[in-house]
């Protein structure tokens, strides 16, 4: 009996690998899955937040497919030590997206803000952490400045952060206090950018 059990374990792993491989092969009828907004670990949240996350995802996908903007405005910003830029994307007079790049000595942060009915709806934050300072002369490090990329995805409903997915996340839900603080930080940055566009 023990031998049968031990022999069945490798077969179980081989069988599950074949199923996983078969599911990953794209076909003509397979819809494009947006990797910014969905991770395998997020399926648990779809059970109780699915109805709230669906319009946010749909709005993001609609905005992200726009290629012909009515207007774009780029401004210099000073929210970081090395400065940065913010680009504002308008369609028919409505501000739909802001992309802010903040430069620092040891990296840069790119924040993409998406709006829904004039309010913050979704934020994709990408942190590039350099493996040496700008202008650093450390020959023991490789030439590439980007040593690590970390992404955070933040979902807002009526101005309140309801879900955040991070590359550093272990899959456990964030405490409400943490979500409240992150929501304040992102809304503060968003408000700064909104005020700055008119300067």
Summarize the structure.
With about 200 residues, the chain is α+β, with helices and mostly antiparallel strands.
How would you describe this structure in keywords?
alpha+beta, disordered N terminus, 199 residues
List the topology elements.
Layout: H1 2-24, H2 43-64, E1 71-77, E2 84-91, E3 94-104, E4 107-116, E5 119-130, E6 146-157, E7 160-166, H3 176-196
Antiparallel strand pairs: 1-2, 2-3, 3-4, 4-5, 5-6, 6-7
Plain-language structure description:
The chain contains 3 helices and 7 strands; from the N terminus they run H-H-E-E-E-E-E-E-E-H. It is an alpha+beta fold. The protein has one domain. The longest helix has 23 residues, at 2-24. It is globular and about 45 Å long. The model is unreliable at 1-33 (pLDDT under 50).
Name the strands of the widest sheet in spatial order: 1-2-3-4-5-6-7
**Helical proportion?**
25-40%
Number of strands: 7
Taken in chain order, the helices and strands follow as HHEEEEEEEH
How far is the N terminus from the C terminus? Answer: 77 Å
Please state the average pLDDT score.
Answer: 76
User: Mind telling me the C-alpha Rg?
Assistant: 21 Å
Helix run count: 3
Q: How many domain modules?
A: 1
Which regions have little confidence, pLDDT < 50, spanning 5+ residues?
Answer: 1-33
Structural class designation: alpha+beta
Which of globular, elongated, flat, extended, rod-shaped describes the shape?
globular
Query: What kind of sheet is the major sheet?
Result: 7 strands, antiparallel
β-strand percent reads 25-35%
């Amino acid at each position: 009996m023990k031998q049968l059990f031990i022999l069945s374990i490798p077969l179980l792993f081989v069988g599950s690998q074949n199923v996983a491989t078969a599911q990953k092969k794209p076909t003509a009828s397979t819809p494009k899955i947006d990797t910014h907004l969905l991770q395998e670990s997020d399926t648990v949240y779809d059970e109780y937040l699915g109805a709230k996350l669906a319009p946010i995802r749909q709005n993001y996908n609609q905005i992200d497919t726009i290629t012909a903007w009515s207007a774009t405005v780029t401004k210099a910003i000073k929210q970081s030590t090395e400065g940065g830029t913010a680009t504002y994307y308008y369609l028919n007079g409505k501000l739909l997206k802001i992309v802010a790049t903040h430069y620092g000595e040891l990296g840069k942060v790119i924040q993409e803000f998406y709006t829904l009915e004039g309010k913050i709806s979704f934020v994709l934050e990408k942190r590039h952490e350099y493996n040496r300072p700008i202008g650093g002369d450390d020959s023991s490090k490789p030439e590439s400045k980007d040593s690590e990329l970390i992404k955070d995805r933040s979902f807002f409903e009526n101005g309140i952060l309801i879900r955040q997915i991070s590359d550093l996340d272990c899959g456990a839900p964030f405490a409400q206090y943490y979500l409240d603080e992150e929501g304040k930080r992102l809304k503060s940055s968003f408000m700064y950018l909104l005020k700055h566009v008119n300067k």
